[in-house]
Structure formats: C-alpha cells, structure tokens
From TrEMBL:
<dbReference type="Pfam" id="PF08545">
    <property type="entry name" value="ACP_syn_III"/>
</dbReference>
<keyword id="KW-0443">Lipid metabolism</keyword>
<feature type="domain" description="Beta-ketoacyl-[acyl-carrier-protein] synthase III N-terminal">
    <location>
        <begin position="107"/>
        <end position="189"/>
    </location>
</feature>
<dbReference type="Pfam" id="PF08541">
    <property type="entry name" value="ACP_syn_III_C"/>
</dbReference>
<comment type="similarity">
    <text>Belongs to the thiolase-like superfamily. FabH family.</text>
</comment>
<dbReference type="InterPro" id="IPR013751">
    <property type="entry name" value="ACP_syn_III_N"/>
</dbReference>
<dbReference type="GO" id="GO:0033818">
    <property type="term" value="F:beta-ketoacyl-acyl-carrier-protein synthase III activity"/>
</dbReference>
<keyword id="KW-0511">Multifunctional enzyme</keyword>
<dbReference type="InterPro" id="IPR013747">
    <property type="entry name" value="ACP_syn_III_C"/>
</dbReference>
<feature type="domain" description="Beta-ketoacyl-[acyl-carrier-protein] synthase III C-terminal">
    <location>
        <begin position="234"/>
        <end position="321"/>
    </location>
</feature>
<dbReference type="InterPro" id="IPR016039">
    <property type="entry name" value="Thiolase-like"/>
</dbReference>
<keyword id="KW-0275">Fatty acid biosynthesis</keyword>
<feature type="active site">
    <location>
        <position position="249"/>
    </location>
</feature>
<comment type="function">
    <text>Catalyzes the condensation reaction of fatty acid synthesis by the addition to an acyl acceptor of two carbons from malonyl-ACP. Catalyzes the first condensation reaction which initiates fatty acid synthesis and may therefore play a role in governing the total rate of fatty acid production. Possesses both acetoacetyl-ACP synthase and acetyl transacylase activities. Its substrate specificity determines the biosynthesis of branched-chain and/or straight-chain of fatty acids.</text>
</comment>
<protein>
    <recommendedName>
        <fullName>Beta-ketoacyl-[acyl-carrier-protein] synthase III</fullName>
        <ecNumber>2.3.1.180</ecNumber>
    </recommendedName>
</protein>
<keyword id="KW-0012">Acyltransferase</keyword>
<feature type="active site">
    <location>
        <position position="113"/>
    </location>
</feature>
Amino acid sequence: EYRSVVTGIGGYLPERILTNEDLSKMVDTDDAWITERTGIKSRHIAADGELTSDLGTKAAIKAMEDAGVTADDIDLIICATATPDKTFPATASIIQRKLGVTNGAAFDVQAVCSGFVFAMATADNYLARGQFKRALVIGAETFSRIIDWSDRGTCVLFGDGGGAIVLERQTKEEANGSGVLGAHLRTDGRYVDLLHVDGGPSSTQTVGHLRMIGNQVFKHAVNKISESVRTVVDEADLELSDIDWLVPHQANQRILSAVARNLGVEENRIVSTVANHGNTSAASVPLALSELHKSGMLKKGELVLIEAIGGGLSWGAALFRL
Ligand code: ACO
C-alpha cells in the first residue's frame, strides 16, 4: 500500500505587476470597485514571449530544489492549464523538455481553475497504483493572453503565474501518516456557458476570449466548494476542525471568506494571496501553497485542504498531510 507524499513546493510569478490604478486607465473601473468586490489590488502579467511553459518550468525547478531532487528523479509530469503554449503538444511535454526530464510520461489536465486539484488527484491515483515513483504536479497559466482587455467585468480579475509540487510514492510505513488522504472531484456540464472561452481549434480556429457571467458563477461557488470540502473530510474520517490550513483557489476574497464562514474555518487558517496575485486559475492553489511554505508557517505533519471551482463548471477538494 502506497501513499503520495508532498516533498517539495514552489511558485513563480512574472515580474511585471499590473495594479488597479493601471487598469483604471485602460477601462472604466477604479480601485475601490475592484477592491470591494474582489479583494484584488494587483496581479502579475507575463512578459512578451514568456509562455505558460516558462512559468511552469520555473515553478517546477523551485519545487524540485525544495524536494532535493533532480530531473532524473522525475517520471511523471502533469500540468494543469487552460492556456497551453500551443494547441498541442501538451504544455507538460514542453516543460519536460525544458527541465531535461526524459523518463516516464507527461500530459496536461484541463479543468480550468480546478485544474490543480484534478491534476493532484490524478497523480495520486497513478502513484498509489505503483505506476510512477515521483511526479511533478504543476499549475501554470497565462490568462492575460485570453482576456478581453476591453471587458471591465473580467479583465480586472485575472493574473499570470505558475506553481508546482513534487509528489512522491512512499510505502505506508515510510510515509508515517503523511500523504494525500483523499480527493473529491465534480463537474456539471449543464453550466458550461457560465464561464468559457469563445474560441478553439474545433469551433472557430481562433484562440478566443474568456467570457463569464460572474454573478452566476458566484452563486454556485460557495455551496459547491463547501460540499466538496465536507465530502473529502468525511471520507477521510476527519473533522473540519482538524484542518490546519485551507488553501483555496484564489478567485475572489468574498468567495474565500464565505466558504470559511460556511465551514466554520477560522480566517487565520485560510491562505489568501488574491490581493497580490488576482485569479491565476490552475496556478492559484500551488502558488498560494508556495507562499504559505515560504512564510515558514507550514509545518511537517499539518493537515492541508485545497479546493477550487472553475469553468465546466468543475470543482473539487483534496486533503493531504504534509
Ligand atoms: N469596475 C466597475 N464596475 C464594474 C466592473 C469593474 N471592473 N465590472 C463590472 N462592473 C459593473 C457592472 O457593469 C454592473 O453594472 P450595472 O449594475 O450598471 O449593470 C455592476 O458592476 C454589477 O455587476 P455584477 O457582475 O453583478 O457585479 P458582482 O457584484 O457580481 O461582482 C464579480 C462581479 C466580481 C465578477 C463577481 O460576480 C465575482 O467575483 N464572481 C465570481 C467570478 C469568479 O470568481 N470567477 C472565477 C471563478 S472560476 C475561475 O477562476 C475561472
């Protein structure tokens, strides 16, 4: 019997920062509106020519350094992204080349903002079956490339970035209580139109732009996330009060706070990076995790819950002990 243990965490943000002030010169908006409705103050934007695979690779290198492993030790790369460098090959393949990894397999997972939760659950299943030994699970996005920069309803919300973890197969004895303890994944395709990109290879042969009915997405978010969190905690025979850190998808401070209230998790146990990162889609959970890790507050043996909701609609939660 195997456990998938998180042994390394890393994040990367592009240098350029776009503030609410900057945005107010581009569209009819202001800092007060954005701050009050979302909690976002600034976001990072990838430089010209800086690709999703670059952000993912930089985050992966940090996670590998943190785990003390090299390219030869990695045999699985799963990249969660909705903004791949190209239609194909998978961004994970490009990251594999950039890292110099030549073993095992690499592929992408597409569940938009829930992508990292889905990718981590996928990697956990492969490792638990003994099929791979050490995975890089990456969330990397350049949403700035699919934003309609004239749409004030969406352009203020998103940012670019990458985050990664190293997930290692260990025997139950080696893991000694650490590892992924469960995941709950859901999709309801009836809501595909609430949040989508209006282009693609098969439909328009264009890249398209992000379109969202924000207030309707908001209505689904709190209940659906809470349901996933309760399920994953129940199935692991734990209580919500056992959670040391809640690391949510960083879409909106109001959603974060409402979920916390709904679940009764104290605010000081919730990691919030939305003010400085904006919504980085699949990168947001590993980026928030890497901020927590960098702060030195995350301790070995602590129980971490990650959750997300995004296009699809897809949503889910996963639980691991560090
Ligand atoms: N600046 C000023 N006014 C704005 C802006 C802006 N940037 N954007 C919209 N408005 C206006 C609208 O035009 C509207 O004006 P009207 O009343 O004259 O028509 C008014 O503000 C209210 O618009 P709503 O969309 O109803 O505002 P709401 O309170 O719902 O806030 C927001 C909008 C922040 C998008 C909110 O709905 C939200 O956060 N939804 C969740 C979306 C989300 O998090 N999606 C991501 C999750 S999934 C993923 O990560 C891919």
